[in-house]
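Submission sheet (multi-component)
Chains listed below:
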Amino acid sequence: MSITVKNLRYIYNKEMPGETVALDDVSFEISDGSILGVIGHTGSGKSTLLQHLNGLLKPESGDVFIDDVCITDGKTELVEIRRRVGLVFQYPEYQLFEETVAKDVAFGPRNLGLDDEEIKRRVKHALEIVGLDYEDVKDNSPFEHSGGNKRKIAIAGVLAMEPKVLILDEPTAGLDPKAHREILAMVRRIHDSTGCIIIFVSHNMADIASMADKVIVLNAGRIVLEGTPAQVFSHGEELAAMGLDVPPAREMTDKLSRLIPGFTSEALSITQAADDIRNFISSDK
Amino acid sequence: MSYIEIRNLTVQFMKINEDGSEVPGRKALEDISLDIEKGSFVAVVGMNGSGKSTLAKCLNGLILPTKGDVIVDGMNTRDEDHLWDIRSRVGMVFQNPDNQIVSSIVEDDVAFGPENLGIEPAEIRRRVNQALKQVGMYDQRLKGAHMLSGGQKQRIAIAGAVAMRPECIIFDEPTAMLDPKGRENVMNIISELNADGITAILITHFMSEAVETDRIIVMNAGRVLCDRTPAQLFSDTEMIERAGLELPPFIELREKAGLPSDVTNLEKMAAYMNNR
Amino acid sequence: MIRDITLGQYYPGSSPIHRLDARVKITATMLYIVELFVVNNFAGFLIAGIALFTVIGLSRVPLKFIFRGLSAVFIIIFFTLILNIFLTDGRVLWHWKFITITYEGLTRAVFMAVRLIMLIIGSSLLTLTTKPIELTDGLEKLMSPLSKIGVPSHEIALMMTIALRFIPTLMEETDKIIKAQQARGADFESGNIIQRAKSLIPILIPLFISSFRIAQELALAMEARCYHGGSGRTRMNEIHFHKGDAVAAVILVLFLTLIIASRRMGMPAIQ
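Outcome: structure written.
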């Protein structure tokens, strides 16, 4: 399974005051079961891109293929697209609406026209993957839950559609450190148990570095950098010019290597950076 | 006498039963006593639901104590005659930049507070201009608020508090909804205001922000779990674990690399590594 | 489409129209709307139209921007047109089965549509050229005599300020919720009217919850900034009546006279 995006172009407010090219000649590929990290500052075109991937926006030109199916040719039914691509927006807990958790999670599968038994199976499965106990929560009101749990319920609502591609737009925004760690662990678990492609958008570069197999960097509607986290984050100065950071570990080792002759490190995680420092100290003597 | 004195503060919200009767619900804060000194920079951290925001809202009388007292600059928040005096001294900036801007136009919004205080128009104009310059938004003063980025909106909200000439500003997770640039910007403004003598109380989930303050109050389940300097707190990994927090990146690196705790910044780390 | 609604938006500028006293503009707009219903023939519409376009020209608000607002209310205009065409008795122009088009119906429909379009343009011109705070201050001042008989003019004005401020925020919120539910496979376009109404529930409930959250947070933020009603409040920008406002008032009176005179210009009247 794969996603191929070809020469995507999109214009906001076409022929109106404030016309802007939101996406310009964007092309990339994601292959089987990998995690793609997407970074870019606010207004770089990230959310416009995500909305093209499940047919919420139609491109000016260019195509999106999921496997061999072109979802931008206007022939594919929207339900068919959404069956394949699940999109979890920022602060998804604000879209909860049903009386019970189970009903809310069932909203997506029901829209796909599945039978009750299959819906129940999917709801149960989805809640379990996000780390909630089905029997415990199914009859609760989703609004009684904590912020972190509400978010998990909302994510389960998309997972229950069993998409082949799961897009998460800043899934950890606004959470406390503990809930943040739980959401990251959940994303890993989703990835391991379903094998779906995950597209992960975040401002947190440490999360991107630890989660993603491949990273694309958007700036002013264009892909300006693309590669493994190690490759992308070796362009610290270019990223800084776009208002983006490198992971804190890298930021610190970069500074250290400027201050210490002979010290180099390409660490993306604090653990790796600490190892490099220890090795430097012991090898020196 | 401290600027803000919190004495045995307990806040218990009322819960409405299914039959409509009100009964005491859970205690959001329990028996908290703290002193906050004038001009200090204090962080309040803890998990969601630990009572941080409730505590903040007690400091300017948005929530009144169920038991105990909060005294601001000698005035009790229970004393209705002083409520507006307290709120004009203790400003507040909230988490969601969108939901605290009252007026569509930037400068009109900044003027909202001083207008409520009944200050004369020429003086309001002076304060608004000055506050906007202080947060670097003077050039955008005639713009529509909905045209601004989250970080810019948050700067407007800060200007709105600053224009009331408060002695203290409480920042209730002001950076939670911002991108890294906006966050950095807002943090710089908060540090500058504190350097100018304003007492700053910062509620945050970001340890990299908390570590910039003079003092960190850790909340857990409505109580103060500990109250220490950043250096003391972050050398206690067991406490960090218990409170559901995490170490700031620099300290995590130092600990994992096994370096001594007197290495407090990157320059010292470099010097330490060079000398070995 | 949701973003196309220009009603209630402000277009920043410093044109003579922008600089007018809000009270003059509000009064003028209200009188203009009344006038549109006094007008009963072509000459009157011509005068009202010239006046409108002169003001648009002076305001330097781009025409595109003004007409964009109309597309949102196109449906209303369209229905007015249809209803008037088919439901007015008179000289028959065309007849087929139960459909009859009369001369009176046609003219009336066109006049009604023109009236509506001019009304919408006229009133959006007020909000486009007047800062919301000036608009509400102006209203508050105009209504202040009424506060003596117990009309809460300050509260009404503040409610309007907040409503205008939160129109774009709520629009964005609605847009987000619609898209999020669409991403969960929600379908708002097919099915009969009951199914469609039902399909709005996943939008309306989150929207209500959001609105309440916004209202609660805003109320706290206002209290924290010492808001305690209108008494003892001052204003940064006090409204002053300038020479330009006097000129505008004179022109307004002239326009009124012309419109009333137009009723006697011997053109065919339409009612």
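Remark: Chain B is about 35% helix and 25% strand.
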